[in-house]
Amino acid sequence: MAFEITNEFLENLVGFIDKKNDSKIKNIFEDVHFADIAEVLDEVSFDEAIYIIKLLDSEKTSEILTELDEDTREKILENFSAKEIANEVEEMDSDDAADIIGELSEERQKRVINELEDTELAEDIKELLSYGDDTAGSLMAKELVKVYETWTVAGCMRRIRGQAQEVTRVHSIYVVDKGDRLVGRLSLKDLIVAKSDQKIADISKAKVDAVNVNEDDETVARIMVKYDLEAIPVVDDNNVLLGRITIDDIVDLLKEEADKDYQMAAGLTQDVDSDDSIFELTKARLPWLFLGLIGGVGAFIIMEGFQDVFSKYASLFFFTPLIAAMAGNVGVQSSAIIVQGLANDDVKGSINSRLLKEMLLAALNGVILALFLFLFVWVYEGKIDLALAISVSLVVVIIIAGLIGTFVPLFLNKRGVDPAIATGPFITTSNDIFGILIYFMIAKMILGI
Amino acid sequence: MAFEITNEFLENLVGFIDKKNDSKIKNIFEDVHFADIAEVLDEVSFDEAIYIIKLLDSEKTSEILTELDEDTREKILENFSAKEIANEVEEMDSDDAADIIGELSEERQKRVINELEDTELAEDIKELLSYGDDTAGSLMAKELVKVYETWTVAGCMRRIRGQAQEVTRVHSIYVVDKGDRLVGRLSLKDLIVAKSDQKIADISKAKVDAVNVNEDDETVARIMVKYDLEAIPVVDDNNVLLGRITIDDIVDLLKEEADKDYQMAAGLTQDVDSDDSIFELTKARLPWLFLGLIGGVGAFIIMEGFQDVFSKYASLFFFTPLIAAMAGNVGVQSSAIIVQGLANDDVKGSINSRLLKEMLLAALNGVILALFLFLFVWVYEGKIDLALAISVSLVVVIIIAGLIGTFVPLFLNKRGVDPAIATGPFITTSNDIFGILIYFMIAKMILGI
Known about the structure:
Two copies of one chain form a homodimer.
Chain A: H1 7-18, H2 22-28, H3 34-43, H4 46-55, H5 58-67, H6 70-77, H7 82-89, H8 94-102, H9 106-115, H10 119-129, H11 136-139, E1 145-148, H12 153-164, E2 173-176, E3 182-186, H13 188-193, H14 200-203, E4 211-212, H15 217-226, E5 231-235, E6 241-246, H16 247-265, H17 278-305, H18 314-318, H19 320-343, H20 351-381, H21 384-414, H22 425-447
Parallel strand pairs in A: 1-2, 4-5
Antiparallel strand pairs in A: 2-3, 5-6
């Protein structure tokens, strides 16, 4: 737990690299976890990172490579030959190996796979690469401990000793019939507690949760989280056992999903972090800002259309930022609740009942807020008709903003589009325009102009 | 995997409850996972839920109770006597038991603990309740498999058979010295692969990650995710083994954190979901809307101060929604990147270098956007001085909005306040006001009025 990247550590490290003092470098990384080494590589220059990776044992570097973020890894692997990548990959679990090879160009993928000495791993990787991007197959690893239902506990223990060497973590032992179809599971604990002459079929649990290899990865995540599973077996359409998915990959997936939703809500079109280049960051930020610009131009055109009102009721114009802000805030609040509900699978009832509820809610909020605004305008401007016009419009704008915020994500979800899009500048921008339009129309009506 | 709550299922269930056909009710829940039963309870009326819970075996209902959301559980437990709660709790792991007892009033806590027949569990629960809310101690369970370093593999296997019965999942076996201090760990796999007369000290790994019982829970989550751990032992200041934390609790914690950040960004002050009452939802939404209202009034006062400009340059006023929207969007984008970076612990470098980078980035985005706006205003309004004034102001507003969005979360974080607050309506509202003020000041200056 204790490792922390200090300036002193980095200075020492860079000094050793300058002097090519390889034994010292190996020495300071001796007891450091590969996840920490991956972080160190992010702190040093690119050439230094390459130097370190090439120096350390492939047993360690293969783990480091899986921990690096994609951009850094890609750049580092460009400096590796196909043979060197193959050597790293042979130390990895099949799922990590497939992920990393999948990031290479197609031509390089073939060359690396050809260089693999472990032909079984090569076959496994080819199989894993064949599954679609967001499927259970893309998450699974081929390594697992498998026993036949006809075996005895003693025979099973003997075989497991062999298989377990290759499997980093044994969560469950999967029981298959002679056609390799999944028929049950047992835990190492069950095996230890059982008598050695018992049949596997008698001590295994027949009820075993499994997912189809083509199942959507987010569904797999939801199942594993809901049922508190640490690993889940993956089967094909005939129930033949193909691999297993472990919870650590699901944790990563959930984190990515949460980050993506958050960024979408903040108006970032792609996964960026604060250390990315200005060019990358601009690419992520500019599209939504353009949308905002277009929305602003729309608002301009609407306001210009109402400019004859200015001579009599100039104050109406000074409240447009307030109206726009409220429409935007209410829209984001209501869409965020729906988006989260959809993600957690707990949005029940019809769209109509949702909209009715949101209407009541927005009306309640709107009336409370409008009351304060009414008092302010009345006292400050001394015109009760203006105060009334502005407050009534505010209530209507808030209700409509709430309805749009509720409807849009539900509609997108029905159409198979990720509803999280709806929480970002999309809702704010459209609500700005609608809000300002409705505001002026209602105000004009009430004021009789 | 196959269970889904259908209308038919619910109709049958409610029919059986009406007729008090207990055997049929037990029957339809026979093969249903407790996580699914918890969802069913959310779909039926409160009285029906109570009826079902009281009917099923406590082995099953104890699991169902842990799966329910806090509100529903609280309401159900109000209908339980202290003795009934104690019966449920005795079937639970110590961490779940402590969580559920912790939700009761202090007086009820004592009564339930007094009713527990398992005095060891009672002691464990008292200990777990004594740890602070956001600490490792509040996440850990007391159940674990512990062996002494002086034992042999065979002796160990014998003892483990006993201990393992109580532990739902054996991730690691923790090795302690005679003072119960943590000195190593081994996996069940290591034990199976070892020879039966080997000493535990010889086959265990001396390097074992552990966290202090007072460590912050989010730090524990970060460690477990970073190092891909499925369980981590918890020790006191003297390295005495107290309990262990498993990854399923961390998954729940991460989900809660992500939800909280997302809701904060959307302007919701507390954890709500779409099925909450209108009153609950109003409580979560209204405070931020009030902030927006106050911001809007601020914008009104600023614009009113510039109203003499209207006769000559009315269009300036029609662009305020655009300026406010851009200031808000840029602010949220830049703060979201910082907030996420802080959460992932990868914001490096000084505040000044961050601000400089954001300034360059915002300037780049601003100039591109301003160019388009310049052309639009020039062509549409035919006034080049107006076009220039509006575009230059836009660039300045975007830069300042970006700086505020970067600075505020970094500042809050330094002060120990959750920086996620900064992404919500807080940034939008303050940027609205600043943006509009700066816009009019610069435009006035350029237009010489």
